[in-house]
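tool_call: predict_structure(chain=1)
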Amino acid sequence: MFFKFKYLIMLLIIGSAVAQEPSGRQFRRTGIHNGNLVRTVFGNWGVVGQPSNKGPRGAWLNDNNGYIGDVSPMVGAEITTLDTSGNPVKFRSVVIAPANRPTSTGFEESPGGKSWGFEPQSGYFNQNQESVAISTNSTTWPSFWPNKMGDGNDPGWRGSWNGYFGKDIQNIQQESFFVMDDNNDEEFNYHNIISGMLLSNQTQQTQHEMVLGSK
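tool_result:
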């Protein structure tokens, strides 16, 4: 007798990005991963399971059975820089992805409305659409990928998917791609010397379905 087991895996892979494009709240886009029995909404500012009004939240079988409040990266660091007089200035900061969570102080943002956290960079999605770039829908891709302009044989990988496993390689059920940074985080902006922790993250989410058999 042959039994089949299905394993549903979603990975969030974060690395450093090469190209620096403008970033901000105006470039926020959402997407839905539905390459297997687990379906979830996510945003290109680093949150999974939100916005809750845009789709299922880590649902299995039925979209109303959501198991995720939110999943998002958190990066902490201690940074030393110099002020305008050349004196060392040290501060500690934690950068998170903005999410709708219960809080007594409200969202962390500047008086001008800039969020103190990760925001998406432009250039990594079709700006005429409201979706994050998804491997299974080429209409969501940008006309070229800014972080691939250094490819001497095919600058920008036009018309090809920017895959984790390589150019136009899609050997998984579904993959998304976006880049976010903390350049809008002005919480510790000393005399305009430094804004945020100068973090830039290339983010790829992959959704797999694995079938195993045993006798």
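agent: The first strand starts at residue 3 and ends at 16. Proceeding to next step.
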